Amino acid sequence: MPPRNIVAELTNPDGDVLSAEAEVEPVITEETHSAKRPPMKIVWKNVVIFSLLHLASFYSLFLIPKAHYYTLIWVFLFYLMGGLGITAGAHRLWSHRSYKAKLLLRIILGIFQTIAVQNDIIEWARDHRLHHKTSETDADPHNAKRGFFFAHIGWLLVRKHPEVKNKGKTVDLSDLYADPVCVVQRKIYRPAVILLSFVLPAVVPYYCWGESLWNAFYLASILRLCIGLNVTWLVNSAAHIFGNHPYDRRISPAQNVGVTLGAIGEGFHNYHHVFPYDYSTSEYGWYYNLTTFFIDFWAYFGQVTERRKIPKEVIERRKKRTGDGTEGFNF
């Protein structure tokens, strides 16, 4: 079944009804932000963990020439699996409900999302729904108005702003708690992460083609994880700072080709923040968008239904009304 058009109204996961051309992002002004933010409190445990991860990943780079080429292919495949768990799963399916997936695909995406190690599905979706409701304000978990570093990783190294906690309580997650895949994953998340993201990636190369366990662990578990995390974080940082704004010049999220390539389709960010319920996060279909291809592939086998798509005429009207006059990516 082809993707359906969203012509009249959209209902977001929090129950708000929005027209297809509704203002889904606040216009950012200086008054949007708190005049006096409380001092940031560093979470030293996270600082140590992420520092060690990046140092170990830097060391891992020197192991690449010594690795079996099967191992490098394995690393890339695991990177894609974790990435799709975020893009097709936590983001487009569970955060935005931009399509529906049957149980088999939801289980696969739940496994993939666990591989990515970015908190469980429910927590990830809560933060992302809040990000869209309060984008670029103090209630936004990774507010890009606080700088590239904060939006990229800094938000994970400090205590959350009080507004994040306050507004986070207003996000409706009932649909996620009604999904057994989300509930079960949340219950077994930590042991599942150890097994799927650290043990499995290392032991398969060791047993299947004789890679050293040392190389396999540092490349397939550590380096792959670090790259996957940073690529996802670039959606919050680079794609909110660098790029053009064909759909709405008044908001920070931008079209960023580098992020699009690395995050397998998530860098059409100006489009996504204007039309967050489009399952493709882009008007261009499979172009630079492996995640859209993945969703359409499963739709062919009946595992995906009700893909939500914005009509072309609505997109064009929005471009003329609020866009910056550019098309695609402005290199």
TrEMBL record:
The protein's required cofactors: Fe(2+)
GO BP, sorted A to Z: unsaturated fatty acid biosynthetic process
Intracellular or extracellular location(s): Membrane
Domain Fatty acid desaturase: 74-277
Residue ranges crossing the lipid bilayer per the database entry: 43-64, 70-91, 103-122, 188-209, 216-235, 284-302
UniProt entry keywords in alphabetical sequence: Fatty acid biosynthesis, Fatty acid metabolism, Iron, Lipid biosynthesis, Lipid metabolism, Membrane, Metal-binding, Oxidoreductase, Transmembrane, Transmembrane helix
Membrane topology category: Multi-pass membrane protein
One annotated Gene Ontology cellular component of this protein: endoplasmic reticulum membrane
Domain of life: Eukaryota
Principal location class: membrane
GO molecular function: iron ion binding; stearoyl-CoA 9-desaturase activity
Statement: the UniProt record of this protein carries the keyword Protein transport: no
PANTHER family cross-referenced by the UniProt entry: ACYL-COA DESATURASE, DESATURASE 1, ISOFORM A-RELATED
Family indicated by similarity: Belongs to the fatty acid desaturase type 1 family.
Domain notes: The histidine box domains are involved in binding the catalytic metal ions.
Protein name, entry field: Fatty acid desaturase domain-containing protein
Biological source species: Patella caerulea
Source organism phylogeny: Eukaryota, Metazoa, Spiralia, Lophotrochozoa, Mollusca
